[in-house]
């Protein structure tokens, strides 16, 4: 399955009717994906009276947003594999799964187009102060156009932190649509990565921050990436720079972001990810009150098409793993 496009889902005849594996769908999935799961598996969905037995009975799970803690994993004595809709597995205790030999099949790349379009949306909205303008108008205040002054993104430099599937989509989109230059940083990929995309490979994060008009984050939240963008990093950035986060809350130090915006260290921020989700006025009032932030509640993959595609990809990945395991054991 190519990123962002549904090609041919796994054949429903992969398993004989009498040999269909039982799979528990812990979350409500797209209806088309549920039908697909039911064509391949003995799929037990939310609302089925058997669903409550997943801890003691499940060999296979498919999840979208549910948390699976170490205690959850421990309470599943027969669990063998998990299909995870989406690329992030931070809601699953991966260490507990590894200890038990439980396989996690996520769906990297399938939501790349949707998230890349969200990056573009947040970038343009932040550049033109759309959030502030809409907020003022919604409160009843007239906003004369003479009081508005935004930024042009065309032909600027886009800094991409993380050169995976989403980062690559972002690079192509901004280059093709806006004629931007690309500088990218990823210490884990070989130097010949993105050979088909004109770009500068930054040797350090600092080099990227100093050079970019827009910095967009596409990395997982790990101990070494928590607070990766903090006050010292904001000090390195251009005064008209924009920071975009569609990856995970916690990569940006949110208190330092408020300080940086209030001090005018950067132009603004577009955030689809926050440490608290969904974000609330109580927690994020000081950030939103700067008038320089566009916040959305982690909607990067929240399109019907993407939800269908990522759910089907998780189901297919799990089905292929089960079939391969059965073939190996036979």
Automatic annotation (TrEMBL):
Residue ranges occupied by any D-isomer specific 2-hydroxyacid dehydrogenase catalytic domain in the UniProt entry: 55-325
Keyword Cell wall biogenesis/degradation: no
Domain of life: Eukaryota
Any one Gene Ontology molecular-function term assigned to this protein's record: NAD binding
One Pfam family recorded for the sequence: 2-Hacid_dh_C
Entry keyword annotation includes Ribosomal protein: no
UniProt cross-references to InterPro entries, sorted A to Z: D-iso_2-hydroxyacid_DH_PdxB, D-isomer_2_OHA_DH_cat_dom, D-isomer_DH_CS, D-isomer_DH_CS1, D-isomer_DH_NAD-bd, NAD(P)-bd_dom_sf
Keywords: NAD, Oxidoreductase
Chain ranges of the D-isomer specific 2-hydroxyacid dehydrogenase NAD-binding domain: 121-300
Annotated family: Belongs to the D-isomer specific 2-hydroxyacid dehydrogenase family.
Protein name, per record: D-3-phosphoglycerate dehydrogenase
Organism field: Corynespora cassiicola Philippines
């Amino acid at each position: 399955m190519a990123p962002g496009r549904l090609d041919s889902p796994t054949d429903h005849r992969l398993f004989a009717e009498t040999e269909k594996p039982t799979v528990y769908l812990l979350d409500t999935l797209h209806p088309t994906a549920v039908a697909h799961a039911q064509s391949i598996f003995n799929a037990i969905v939310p609302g089925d009276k058997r669903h409550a037995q997943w801890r003691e009975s499940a060999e296979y799970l498919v999840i979208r947003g549910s948390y699976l803690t170490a205690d959850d994993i421990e309470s599943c004595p027969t669990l063998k594999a998990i299909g995870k809709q989406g690329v992030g597995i931070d809601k699953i205790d991966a260490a507990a799964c590894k200890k038990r030999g439980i396989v996690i099949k996520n769906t990297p790349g399938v939501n790349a187009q949707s998230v890349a379009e969200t990056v573009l949306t947040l970038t343009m909205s932040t550049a033109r102060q759309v959030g502030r303008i809409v907020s003022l108008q919604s409160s009843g205040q007239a906003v004369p156009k003479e009081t508005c002054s935004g930024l042009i993104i065309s032909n600027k430099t886009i800094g991409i932190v993380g050169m995976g599937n989403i980062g690559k989509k972002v690079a192509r989109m901004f280059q093709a649509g806006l004629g931007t230059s690309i500088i990218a940083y990823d210490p884990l990929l070989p130097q010949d990565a993105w050979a088909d995309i004109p770009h500068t490979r930054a040797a350090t994060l600092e080099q990227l921050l100093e050079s970019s008009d827009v910095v967009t984050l596409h990395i997982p939240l790990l101990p070494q990436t928590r607070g990766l963008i903090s006050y010292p990093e904001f000090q390195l950035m251009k005064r008209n720079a924009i920071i975009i986060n569609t990856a995970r809350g916690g990569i940006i130090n949110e208190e330092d972001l408020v300080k940086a915006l209030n001090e005018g260290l950067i132009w603004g921020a577009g955030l689809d990810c926050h440490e608290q989700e969904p974000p609330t006025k109580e927690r994020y009032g000081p950030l939103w009150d700067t008038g320089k932030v566009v916040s959305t509640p982690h909607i990067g993959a929240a399109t019907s098409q993407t939800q269908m595609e990522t759910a089907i990809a998780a189901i297919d990945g799990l089905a292929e793993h089960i079939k391969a395991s059965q073939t190996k054991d036979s």
